[in-house]
Amino acid sequence: MRAALPSFASARAVLIGTAAYRSASLTDIPHSLQNVRGLGDVLTDPALSGFAPQHVVTVADPDRPEEVMLPVTAAAEEATDALLVYYSGHGLLTGTNGDLHLSLTGSEPDQPWTSLPFSYLAEAVKLSRADVKIVILDCCFSGRAHSDLMGEGSVVIRGQMPHHGMYCLTSAPETKRSTAPEGDTYSAFTGFLLTAMEKGVRDAGPVLRMGDLWDEVCRRMRTTTYPLPEQSSRKNADNFPLVRNRAYLPPPPRTASLFAPRRQGPNPVPLQATTPSGRPSFDTVEGRGYRIGDVNARLDQVIAVASDPLRWSQARPPHFARVSGRGHHGYDRAQVDEHVERHRHQPDGFVDSLRVLLIRQGMELVPDGRPQRRRLAKLKDRSGITGEEHLVGYVRSGWFETRTVDIVCSDRHLCLSTSSDLLRIPYRLLGRVSLATSAVMERWVSVTDQGGSSGDVLVVTTTVSFEYRKVEFSESETHPLQTTLRTFLRGMDELAARHPEWFR
Fold first, then answer.
1. pLDDT above 70 coverage of the chain, percent
2. HSE (side-chain half, CA atoms, 13 Å) at 417
3. Are 344 and 306 in contact (CB under 8 A)?
4. What 8-state DSSP symbol labels residue 238?
5. Is the pLDDT higher at 407 or at 254?
6. Alpha carbon 312 to chain centroid distance?
7. Nearest to 200 by CA among 242, 240, 245
8. Distance between CA atoms of 72 and 88, rounded to whole angstroms?
9. Measured between alpha carbons, how far is residue 218 from residues 82, 192, 470 in Å?
10. Tens digit of each residue's pLDDT (9 = 90 or more) over 14-70
């Protein structure tokens, strides 16, 4: 059975490739047309994606801006499900501000009027009524596109722009050049992207979301000398499932067994286990699963606390502290926690619903009526929480033990603060928040009197933008703060869909 994708009935895609150039200053990029063909094949493959062939328009070697803008504008007007625009070619920086232009066959680097300003394409995309709008650029300096696409734009554009999902994936940072290796069929970035789409991603779900694709391309490209791609997202568009995951392996069917299997040899074959009669069944995993006896003995007690209108805030995932050791089997932790959360008491008011969301994100809650400790008073001060506004929950993290980043939730605002910046976002305006992510390999060196050591670490930088302000923080490749923030925004979006009256 194939994994389900969202509706693509009114989805549109425009794929643009500029390969041949008349200018002596611009080399031909034969990869660009191959990129367009390869991406078109994936998008229209019914086994992978859901775009209808007649709704995927290819623009090969455009010579004038209108040859790009007319099909993009038409697709933007027609699309209501998803809109995808892809460009491959030379990226040019023009003017005193270094604006990004997309090259055409007749472009000259020192004549801006011969190329297409990306801002024109960005405004056409932003005005689309599509639920999700995706722009993918494979060109030099493409990282400059994020500000054009995620910015509010002019007052006229801002007034017309629907607050739907927006996603941008670029092949390189704004100061780096993209690469098209000689002799390869595809350019470096698009080649890795197509590989991820066609072959799938291990350990991912049955469908690949835009964020999954970015993660996988970064993982593959970090072993090369090519610049790493960047992504930015608004309204959780990075969660949009674009293709099915060919590498996905569904869990084996469950079998009935009352007890965990005894250990047989150094590497026993994992079996499925069930809880006692009449109880839900959970898969078993080897190592780091919840201890089966502990879950069987206390599951009803944990659910009773989570479902109690007075005690629900005392039940926090992970719901069981004891886990199985190496070589021993336990219940799948995610399945057990999900089962408990389905029984959690659902409050009627906004603040308690916010607390439920924060609990599920692993954030610290501030109980009502408890005196504020000095540490929390400082946290409120850094977050600009004063007067009748109340602190609800928070999470803190240090970057390489040197810089503290706070994600703080009050009863009115999401507050993001670093040592130098503060961003306060009213919950009713969360739809205007965009997240941009970049990654770079950095080398660390440690020297002591006993010797020295060094290595490479992937540093992920997240930029959170709201209107004309932004906060930036960096983390290791696991990026827990970015994951927490993205999941929180997705949860708030779902809460707003259920209770729009709380966000007016």
1. 85
2. 20
3. yes
4. G
5. 407
6. 30
7. 245
8. 15
9. 24, 9, 24
10. 999 999 999 999 999 999 999 999 999 999 999 999 999 999 999 999 999 999 999
The pair phi, psi for residue 132, each rounded to 5°, is -135, 130
- 109-138 residue pLDDT tens: 999 999 999 999 999 999 999 999 999 999
Q: Residue type for 498, please? A: R
Are 193 and 185 in contact by the 8 Å Cβ rule? The answer is: no
pLDDT of residue 403: 54
Q: Is the pLDDT of residue 441 over 70?
A: yes
The Cα 385–Cα 449 span in angstroms is 47
Q: Which residues pair with 136 in a beta bridge?
A: 86, 169
SS (H, E, C) 145-212: HHHHHHCCCCHHHHHHCCCCEEEEEECCCCCCCCCCCCCCCCCHHHHHHHHHHHHCCCCCCCEEEHHH
Contact 85, 40 (CB under 8 A): no
Closest CA to 279 of 261, 260, 295, 294: 295
138 vs 116: CA distance, rounded Å? 15
The token duo for 501 is: 């009256």
Helical segments of 421-464, H only: none
Q: Which amino acid is at 471?
A: V
Residue count (the chain):
504
**If you write DSSP's letter for every residue of 227-250 in order, what string do you get?**
PPPEEEEETTGGG-EEEE-TT--P
Answering whether pTM is above 0.90, one says no
Q: How many CB atoms lie within 10 A of CB 318?
A: 13
In the chain, the amino acid numbered 245 is N
CA dihedral over 472, 477, 480, 484, signed as positive or negative: positive
- At residue 57, the pLDDT reads 97
User: What gap in Å lies between CA 312 and CA 501, rounded to an integer?
Assistant: 24
Nearest to 121 by CA among 104, 135, 105: 135
Q: pLDDT by residue (tens digit) across 339-378? A: 998 899 988 899 999 999 999 888 888 876 454 567 788 8
Q: Which residue has the higher pLDDT, 277 or 219?
A: 219
| Closest C-alpha to 141, from 181, 183, 97 | 97
